Amino acid sequence: MKRLFASVLLSCGCAGLTLANLPAVPSNAPAAVEAVKQVERALGDAIVAADTDKLNQILADDWQTIGSSGVVYTKESILRDLKLGKNKLEWLALGPMNVQVAGDVAVGLSCVMERRSRDGMDTSGNFVWMDLLEKRGGKWVFVRSTGVKVSEGSTIRRTFGLI
């Protein structure tokens, strides 16, 4: 658990450093924030539908995530697992979403309630996800993601309105 927490903190720190080093650009324009929120929702919808074509468009080729179990997944491994039925997201409910945009980089933070199984094991629960997106070729794509499963009674659960 300490390793997972350290990984999440490292990811948050890297995203913060990336945003801090960007040139001064008008940020958080409503249109950009809404575009990022839309692609965030599209990601969840595509995983539920096992739509690997859509995921192939919105995940950068170099995308990686650290799952709540601490395992690193790549775009290739996620697409393969969805095709093989090893990773099944039955449904999800997105909670409040906070998006910060600075130029062609954005960070999205959201809470998600989901029913999911991986390799036949139930991994459902409440999660807090942070995504790093970049505008490439005129569209927003996911570059990095990390998620943490939120336990009952957690302060984070109250902060994000999960209880």
What report would you give on this structure?
It is a single chain. The protein has 163 residues and is an alpha+beta fold. It has a single domain (2-159), classed as Nuclear Transport Factor 2, Chain: A. It is built from 5 helices and 7 strands, in the order H-H-H-E-E-H-E-E-E-E-E-H. Strands 1, 2, 3, 4, 5, 6 and 7 form a 7-stranded mixed beta sheet that branches. A hairpin with a 2-residue loop joins strand 3 (87-102) and strand 4 (105-118).
Summarize the structure.
Helices cover about 35% and strands about 40% of the residues. The chain is α+β, with helices and mostly antiparallel strands and about 160 residues long. Strand 1 and strand 2 form a beta hairpin.
